[in-house]
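User: Okay, second chain of the day. Same drill as before: sequence in, structure tokens out.
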Amino acid sequence: MKTIQLADMRVNRLGFGAMRVCGPNVWGPPKDRTAAHAVLRKAIALGVNFFDTADSYGPHVDEELIAEALHPYPQGLVIATKGGLLRPRPSAWDTDGRPEHLRRAIEGSLKRLKLERIDLYQLHAPDPAVPFEDSVRTLADAQRAGKIRHIGVSNVSVKQLEAARRIATIVSVQNEYNLENRSSEDVLKACEKLGIAFLPWYPLGAGSALKSSRVRKIAAKLRATPAQVALAWLLAKSPVMLPIPGTASIPHLEENVAATALDLPAEDLATLASA
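Assistant: Same drill. Structure tokens below.
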């Protein structure tokens, strides 16, 4: 795999979004814990060295699974986690950016992941009820205390990214971005200008793009799958792009990783750009 610079860390261009190894709807434990461990270990075996998780996945289950499967962690593995969302029930993703909550969240993630310092800690989402700057300052305080190595933000606008950068060095942004949804194009461009890694969550979208005639035609021509075409497009779209597709299936994981070897011809890139 090609690599990307993430602050002072170099990771392979395709990461692993670990949320899918939890139970249905990212709630509770997986039906088969051993199988979940196997997926996480297989990602390492395939060369993936950037894992993205969050304390809200499960909640807490995802971080626990990563530690169970991979600790002591192999050298070079970067684990990114997030805080700032609550899961009072399976259907809820409630924001909580209060400093007191984030401080507890960081401590909880350190304990569950069995880490003394988290390589990348991301504010999961701005909380409308809390000044955005207060949330970011809490992460900056934890960084100064040695609990966080680097800080990222998620689900932000360009204006919020600029506000965060006035408080701390921001090394990554995680927003939704895929063939179907390019609403964060301005944030991606800002990241390119600043040399900040852009982690597109939901990189395969809701699936309709994978069923489109354009994507399927290109996939058939290149003897690839629609998912591989969608991921290869993301990788070609920007040098700061670090996709984090997730799955609970080893065959699907292998399919995703194989997308890193797929080079889309210029005419196909042009077709997808206009899709």
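Residues 3-207+233-260 form a domain with the TIM Barrel fold (CATH 3.20.20.100).

User: Thanks, on to the next one.
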